[in-house]
Amino acid sequence: PDGKVVCEKRDANKDECLIKSDKIESVGGVVITEEGEDGEKKIHSPNRNRKRTGSSTEMAVDQLQASEKLIAELNETWEEKLKRTEQIRVQREAVFAEMGVAVKEDGITVGVFSPKKSPHLVNLNEDPTLSECLLYYIKDGLTRLGTSEANVPQDIQLSGSHILKEHCVFENKDGVVTLVPHKDALVYVNGRKVIEPEVLQTGSRVILGRNHVFRFTHPEQAREKREKNKEVDVCETPGNSGEIADWNFAQCELLEKQGIDLKVEMEKRLLALEEQ
Fold this sequence. Notes:
Layout lengths: L1 E8 L5 E7 L2 E4 L2 E6 L4 E5 L3 H27 L3 H22 L2 E2 L6 E2 L8 E5 L10 E3 L3 E6 L9 E2 L8 E8 L2 E6 L5 E3 L2 E2 L4 E2 L5 E4 L3 E6 L1 H10 L18 H11 L4 H14 L1
Parallel strand pairs: 10-11
Antiparallel strand pairs: 1-2, 3-4, 4-5, 6-7, 8-9, 8-18, 10-12, 12-13, 13-16, 14-15, 14-17, 17-18
Protein name: FHA domain-containing protein
Keywords: ATP-binding, Coiled coil, Cytoplasm, Cytoskeleton, Microtubule, Motor protein, Nucleotide-binding
Subcellular location: Cytoplasm, Cytoskeleton
């Protein structure tokens, strides 16, 4: 009468219990019995072995798949390995391009390198050590520039109080890049405010908002110029005796085009200080 529930395993998938006690409770397919003199309750799950069997099967399948993958990699020819490596390199370059970072042709060295074909923007900074540290590619078709808060994802994302959510668009068609500013956007090209579409030439200085200064570089145009005139460098500004188009040059150019002569202003300030 006061016996136990004895479970015997009849086959691999089924447990049968020989009931020797009437003190049995069943909850959701789980058998609870009282055993021993102190009436201690123990739980017997008919599906316990099934779960163990299932987990073991899954582990065996995973190991089998891993072994098949390893065998497939070992059986690959050198041509197939080279092709797969090239695909990985192309994917990596695409990711770096979205981040504004270039990868050298050897596929190993990572840094800021001027690409040989793609037109791009290179940053200019008041601190020379921070200049030319970022490249922003101008892809074929439309390249949108704005902030991360724009409704439409922007290809180039900048921040700042004077950068609109959708600031401007670069249209690259047949090797010709056109800058199209949005309404009320602060955009300057070579010191002149732009409100209509403007075709960019290699070496052009582009100022977006108040603080973002770039130099536009088109490798194809630069190559053509060098062929016509060996003395013209992509970093030089035509008509300025080879003066380097850096951040200071872009700022002075902006002030001059707005009718402000920086040298005259500095002289006025010096005179005012001397009079004091």
